[in-house]
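Same chain as my last thread, 195 residues:
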Amino acid sequence: MRGSESPMSRAPDLADDAVFDRFYRENVRTVLRWVIRLGGPLLDAEDVTQDVFGVAYRKAHTFREGSPTAWLYGITRRVVANARRRARFRQFVGLHLLPGIPSPGPTMDARLEKLGRRRIVQTALDALGEKHREAIVLVDLEERTAVEAAAMIGVSVGTLYSRLHHARKAFAVALAPYEADLAQATRRVHLKGEA
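reply #2:
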């Protein structure tokens, strides 16, 4: 849906259940990516994604004009921020140590390697402040234009570029302790691909 929106197009009636259902199906994976990348490892990304769409459904009547993606991103930002606060509290009081439902892990080496790389990137993203994290997520990971990302966040393009500059520096610093692990994992994946 990223490239299909134009300022001249008529705003969808998200209060209509059929329209909202289609909107959900078209955007659920994007929102899940945003939640994973903005939320960090302490959040249950699927639950938070459902919370985002719950809020969006309740507020569908408030959407009148503009980009539905920017509107949905604004909701995602607020829901993720609240979920991160709750997760930090749960961690502070030790509730995160309670056993959860075990999930079957990946069994193939390649999937484990990919998961390890994702965790490293997520840990580095989690080390960033909220404003820097969302700049990296939208521009570098989601591959949105600076103009589109600035509109979604609600800042000027110049402000976004400034945040992105500082975010990339901070991200590189956060990744530095893992550079050897990333290089080794990348070599293993390439070697297995040649075998």
